[in-house]
Amino acid sequence: MKWRVVSIAFLLSVVGTGLTWLTLQRPLLALMEVARHGATPGSPEAAVLSRTLGSLPFLLALDLVLLTVVAYGVLDFMVGRPLRRTEELVEQLGRLELDASMPESAGPLLSRIQRALSRMAVALQQEQETTRSQLRALREANARLAQAQTELVSSERLATVGRLAAGVAHEVGNPLAGILGYLSLAGARTTDPELQEFLGRIDHEVQRIDGIIRGLLELGRPGRGSLGPVDVGHVVETCVQLVKAGRDFSSVRLELALTPGVLARADSGPLSQIVINLLLNAVQAMEGQGAVRLTTRSEGGEVLLVVEDQGPGIPEQVMPHLFEPFFTTKEPGQGTGLGLAVSRSLAEGMGGRLMAENVPGRGARFSVRLPSV
Asked: Is 0.70 surpassed by the pTM of this model?
């Protein structure tokens, strides 16, 4: 850009100097001719005339240089700098750097161009912000859609397992009841300690089978119709009193932050089962050491029940499968993997939902949301 301005300034200077020379050539030559005829050779007038004729090309060259410098300064200030700034702004707009500002330039044409570019930058900023907000909305909608799809697949899976369990429950339940009865008779008729130990182990495993079948039946059980106002804090206190006498809770501190008078549209039986399942899972996650905090409050037209533990948290790879039936991270024989699946099914049967997340720092947080009365 600078060399273009220099070339234009030089061209204008040449044109200006040439016009000046063409304009003054004839009068100057005539005046010098008259002075030369009237001057005596060797006189001071003749010497001055000779020096003047000799310095005329130098003066014209100096005039050309001065005109070039002046023209360059004027053109660079009036045209060159604004054009360079405009070029930089266009390049910034091309890189989508829309926060650039442009000062007003002298001259109506460049001012109009720069104002148009500034308006275009503002419009692009608004369009870019609109696009970003739309992208955020699309990402949020996609996340909600993925969550809904996951919940739909999980619900369908639970319903399938429930229908299967309902079909075989009676067929399996009767033989199990018979086995338990015969085990009781056999234990009463023997005094052999080793045999009694074996019978006790068989009884324990049969009880586990019976518990699994009952859990499967809970998955397929439809939502209960007897929903009414339930004091969530009272249900939590009852569950805490029930479980804290257990051996697993001997070294666990149960912290209650219950808002009084919080009523949910629920069923106290399923709600108690959910709370007990969450308490047992929290204690097992902490290996019987630490604190479990239970909180209830009203939030956004819903009743929120939160159970937080100080365990290691939920691994990232476990989180997507946490509520799947038969999925468990416990040792074989320590759990069936139905507790959380049943708890979520019970919560949804009351029109609520059960969610899990990790507490920043350490531990897991399970939230039960139920409709408020």
From this structure: no
